[in-house]
Amino acid sequence: MQSKKDIRTRIAQEKKQHTTEELHNLSSRLFSQLEAHPRFQLAKTVLLYHSLPDEVQTHAFIEKWYSQKVIVLPVVKGNELELRTYKGADQLQTGSFHIQEPLGTAFPSPASIDLAIIPGVSFDRKGNRLGRGKGYYDRLLNKLNVYKIGICFQFQLTEPGLPTEDSDIPMDEVWTENGNVASTGRQC
Questions:
Q1: What is the three-class DSSP state of 55?
Q2: What pTM was estimated for this model as a whole?
Q3: Which residues pair with 45 in a beta bridge?
Q4: In principle, which of 81, 95, 139, 155 could form an S-S bond with 74, CB 3.0–4.6 Å?
């Protein structure tokens, strides 16, 4: 099994093989399918993320849906992620790691989040997730009882599987531009 460091290096090299336009098109394909997911359709409050250039691109998806659903985005606060409501592109500021983060106060009711759509450097078909190595999402998701869908590009899947630790929080499903590639059968 590859080490986490080797997987991160491999995925970073893979990402460089794709243009910004290609990543945008793959992202659009992924979200056009995910919109039809019953959990997304029923969700009133969705935890998303404001993407970096090399991640599944969420900007257009957030813009499309924030007037119809409560979209909550993470803000890096020390070693934790604070959640805030997205209120428009003009209400963002550059935060830690050059991520655009919402202004305002902490989201008052994390228990009301119906669905979490989570980024990752890599996922496997068992729902395991490899992040950037700081543990932010694992600490956040450990506090939330929410259905979790990991999203990535197809080339970010690691087979036969990822190395895991007890602190890693698995996803309930994993989606790529090819649709659902992992369903663990877990229910929240």
A1: coil
A2: 0.95
A3: 70
A4: 81
Residue 61 binned pLDDT confidence (cut-offs 50, 70, 90): very high
Strand, helix or coil at 27? helix
Taking the CA of residue 48 as centre, how many other CA atoms within 13 Å lie in the half-sphere pointing to its CB?
31
> Helix, strand or coil for residue 153?
coil
120 and 176 in contact (C-beta within 8 Å)?
no
* Residue the block writes with tokens 């080339």: 155
pLDDT in tens, 106-154: 999 999 999 999 999 999 999 999 999 899 999 999 999 999 999 999 9
pLDDT in tens, 17-50: 999 999 999 999 999 999 999 999 999 999 999 9
Q: Alpha helices, DSSP H only, in 44-150?
A: 59-65, 136-143
Burial of 6 (0-12, 13-18, 19+ CB in 10 A): exposed
Rama region for 98: left / alpha / beta (φ>0; ψ in -120 to 50; rest): left
Q: How many Å is the Cα radius of gyration of the chain?
A: 15
Amino acid residing at 181: V
Q: Which of 107, 44, 41 is nearest to 74 (CA)?
A: 107
Main-chain phi, psi angles of 168, to 5 degrees: -70, 130
The one-letter amino acid code at 142 reads N
